[in-house]
Write a structure and sequence with these properties.
The protein is α+β, with helices and mostly antiparallel strands and 694 residues long. The protein contains twelve helices and 41 strands. Strands 33, 34, 35, 36, 37, 38, 39, 40 and 41 form a nine-stranded mixed beta sheet that branches. Helix 5 links the parallel strand 35 (466-473) and strand 36 (504-509). The longest helix has 15 residues, at 29-43.
């Protein structure tokens, strides 16, 4: 293991002078802040921020810094394209805009219902009450009688929620929930002794998911959701009556996330059925796919991966059949931003439609609900971050790439035509003080089938006559893709701090992550341990052929949460490539981690896959240095996940290879706290060293 023990000098060119930093130690925080401030001040020219639409969506106002450093407030009239300026003094403190993150959840869903939610029926003649497991229908008419509708064991189940009546008052629906002692997680802050306890069901734990019941006022008879129809569920939601009062619709997510859908009860034939469903024997990614927008009482828009690609469909709720595909093809309909049922179109976020372009770059497309007229409103080769006006007739398009500064254009949603180009960020002054953008790079995966995309962040300053150690910043959670697609990486301390301390930093999305279609995504199924690491290694090796200053004898890796687990398995399974790793708040044992995340990828009930993906089971394979950090009051991933891994390494005789640090008073993501980042930098400088002559 190379160890960089002699002193080195790193010269950092600043706008105000030169800083000399001794080697073997991370640059001090104050010195780094000077460097970062120089970059930020240079880059901020031409950035748009403090954006605000008028309530009617006809005007857009924003702050802009001109070349002379003065700020102005500009107001654009979207009807005429004319701008006016309001002079403004420079702000005392500039806060850079935060990097945008793609949203996992879908946009503007709509569920139509004709409900009357009350203990009392719409005609006020009946009242529903529940006590001690007894559900009773009471007459409000003098001399009227009460009727016991159903009885359950009050120690095992309970009637829950306010009754939901059909508009005609002939039926009502209510939930029946099991009584469950929900698992808890307790964390303790050592300095104060304060304890925090949260509900924290883990994989396999009992969940208080309910079953919908429908009752008839006339007969007193009730019908529960049949267990055989949907099986065990992770979640149930919605009680919605159709306007004619004949059908109730409710939604479910299967336990293990193998499916989700809409159930319907028809009061005319007293039967339950599945109105529409999304299923897969591995997993249906409910948290990212679910979208329902009712166009009318019988028709809804629904997202499905039935072709292997997520697309929008128009569904007949009476039959469950697709009337038509609204979008189609070998690309990802990532998100629905707006639906105009009256005009018959939708605005959607599309990924991977354009051959040769980075498939993670989002484009805004307009498409008719009958599937015709798909139009890319943002055709430029860039990531397009969209800010829709309240009237939905205009939008602000921020077009950029990691290596391309943003251009800001206000466009029409009717055809994408430009109303006004507000400006383009200028990076020339940032380059003059030592900053450079990351370099996009792609190569094939382990099997030569898919393109794998990522970014190379060069050390700063960069000397092509030297060779530098390489750090991979990893996050391989299957719920999304994570390598930046837009021009926002310079404020990421996890990247720029290693850069100014003499490291290449790379970011990659390997197999098993999202936004590339079902086949690409489902490589994570019951194999979080894989983490796309063979694809990442192939990518780094290919990148080093293009960037020979990358020293592949000194490759490290770091990440937090799911990235922490991936970091550990990188060292356990690929220790011949990754020579050091830093894992923060890792979910190293999926059996004790949160139910919604782990059952989605590893299945339910918990089986052998959980053992195959448990880091501690392979502790004897560690052969390179590992830094483990964890926040003492982490309520996202239990701290015991990290402490038990530490104990497993000690039991395996690997104590000389690990460093373990608990971050006092810190929660999830403790490794990104400033003192912990400095600890991580010292760790990698110690074990991987710094620049060396080629």
């Amino acid at each position: 293991m190379p160890c960089f023990l002699h002193r080195r000098l790193v010269f950092l060119i600043l706008a105000l002078g030169v800083i000399v930093v001794p080697a073997g130690e991370p640059m001090a925080s104050a010195e780094m802040q000077l460097q970062f401030t120089a970059w930020d001040k240079a880059i901020r020219n031409g950035l748009l921020y403090s954006v605000d639409w008028s309530d009617d969506g006809k005007e857009l106002s924003y702050d802009w810094q001109k070349e002379d450093g003065k700020y102005v407030r500009r107001v654009l009239d979207c009807e005429t394209g004319v701008q006016r300026e309001i002079p403004r003094e420079p702000s005392a403190k500039f806060t850079p805009p935060k990097p945008s993150r793609r949203k996992m959840h879908q946009g503007p869903g709509r569920i139509l219902s004709a409900n009357h939610t009350d203990q009392m029926s719409p005609d006020r003649l009946w009242k529903v009450s529940s006590e001690g497991g007894e559900l009773t229908l009471e007459s409000t008419v003098a001399g009227g009688t009460s009727r016991r509708l159903a009885s359950v064991n009050a120690t095992e189940k309970k009637w829950w929620g306010t009754p939901v009546w059909s508009a005609d008052g002939k039926h009502f629906a209510i939930w029946l929930l099991p009584i469950v002692n929900t698992a808890k997680l307790t964390v303790r802050e050592a300095s104060t002794g304060k304890e925090t306890t949260v509900d924290y069901p883990a994989p396999g734990d009992d969940l208080p998911t309910g079953r919908a019941w429908v009752f008839s006022v006339a007969s007193g008879r009730g019908w529960q959701t049949p267990e055989a129809l949907i099986g065990p569920t992770y979640a149930t939601r919605q009680l919605d009556w159709t306007p004619d009062g004949t059908r109730l619709r409710t939604e479910y997510v299967s336990r293990g996330f193998t499916g989700f859908g809409v159930l319907e009860f028809d009061t005319r034939n007293q039967t339950w059925r599945k109105a529409v469903e999304e299923t897969d024997p591995k997993f249906s990614f409910y948290n990212g796919l679910y979208f329902r927008h009712d166009l009318d009482a019988e028709t809804t828009l629904w997202i499905s991966e039935r072709t292997g690609w997520s697309h929008l469909y128009r569904i007949d709720l009476r039959t469950g059949r697709a009337l038509n595909a609204v979008t189609s093809g070998p690309w990802v309909m990532r998100r629905v931003l707006h639906v105009d049922a009256k005009a018959g179109f939708a605005l959607v976020e599309a990924l991977g439609r354009i051959p040769g372009e980075n498939p993670y770059q989002a484009h805004l497309c307009r498409v008719n609900l009958d599937g015709s007229g798909l139009t890319d409103l943002t055709p430029e080769n860039a990531q397009h971050d969209i800010n829709l006006s309240p009237c939905r007739r205009h939008f602000l398009d921020t077009a950029s790439r990691p290596d391309l500064p943003p251009t800001y254009t206000v466009r029409r949603t009717s055809d994408g035509s430009a109303i006004a180009t507000l400006g383009t960020a200028d990076i020339s002054r940032a380059a003059a003080v030592g900053w450079s953008p990351p370099i996009p790079f792609r190569t094939k995966d382990r099997d030569g089938k898919f393109d794998i995309w990522g970014l190379i962040h060069r050390p700063k300053p960069f000397d092509p006559s030297k060779r530098y150690p390489v750090l991979e910043c990893i996050y391989a959670g299957p719920h999304d893709s994570f390598t930046p697609a837009s021009f926002t990486p310079w404020w990421n301390n996890a990247v720029r701090e290693p850069n100014v301390n003499g490291f290449y930093v790379v970011q990659i999305d390997g197999l098993g992550t999202r936004n590339r279609g079902r086949e690409f995504h489902q490589r994570a199924w019951q194999d979080l341990r894989d983490a796309g690491l063979p694809d990442r290694i192939a990518w780094i090796k290919a990148a080093a052929r293009a960037e020979p200053q990358m020293d592949l004898s000194r490759v490290g890796i770091f990440g937090g949460s799911a990235g922490g687990q991936s970091t550990v398995f990188a060292l356990l399974d690929h220790g011949d490539f990754y020579r050091a790793g830093a894992a923060d708040c890792g979910c190293h044992d999926n059996r004790v981690d949160k139910v919604w995340w782990n059952e989605q990828w590893l299945g339910w009930p918990p089986g052998p896959a959980y053992d195959r993906n448990r880091c501690a089971n392979f502790a004897d394979k560690l052969r390179n240095p590992l830094l483990i950090t964890v926040g003492e009051i982490d309520t996202n991933v239990p701290p015991q996940s990290s402490t038990e891994l530490r104990d497993a390494f000690l039991a395996a005789g690997k104590g000389d290879l690990i460093e373990f640090k608990v971050a006092a008073g810190a929660g999830h993501g403790a490794g990104e706290r400033e003192d912990m980042r400095q600890l991580r930098l010292r760790f990698f400088l110690s074990h991987l060293g710094g620049p060396l002559p080629r």
